[in-house]
Amino acid sequence: QVQLVESGGGLVQPGGSLRLSCAAAGGIFSLLSIDWYRHRPGNEREWVALITRSGSTLYAASVEGRFTISRDNAKNTVYLEMNGLLPEDTGVYYCTTEHSWGQGTQVTVSS
To answer: pLDDT tens digits, residue range 56-66?
Structure first.
């Protein structure tokens, strides 16, 4: 089973940037497609972005143009670069693959 660990969350002002990391262990990383989800306060968990094993990417409409997902197979890590952050981006961000989920990392966008 794949183990996932997210990091990089924190407090940032509106318009700021953060880069989240998702480190994976226990699988053949280069064969994995990985998704980012988020759970915003008062909302259901929602899908944010996907990167396939070939490097193709997809984004939710709410983050398209502001967020960028990428991967470094040599480091077994997927990144979520978040720019132009808005207060409504506040939430816990999770990465997931192969039915495994990380513990999440908190992102708070507030002045």
So the answer is: 999 999 999 99
Burial class (CB in 10 A: 0-12, 13-18, 19+), 98: middle
Separation of alpha carbons 95 and 70, rounded Å: 12
26-73 pLDDT tens trace: 888 888 999 999 999 999 999 999 999 999 999 999 999 999 999 999
- Contacts of 6 by beta carbon, 8 Å cutoff, 6+ apart: 20, 21, 22, 23, 93, 94, 95, 102, 103, 104, 105
In whole angstroms, give the CA distance from residue 91 to residue 18: 13
Tell me the backbone φ, ψ of residue 29, rounded to 5 degrees: -55, -40
Give the residue from 24, 29, 12 showing the smallest Cα distance to 82. 12
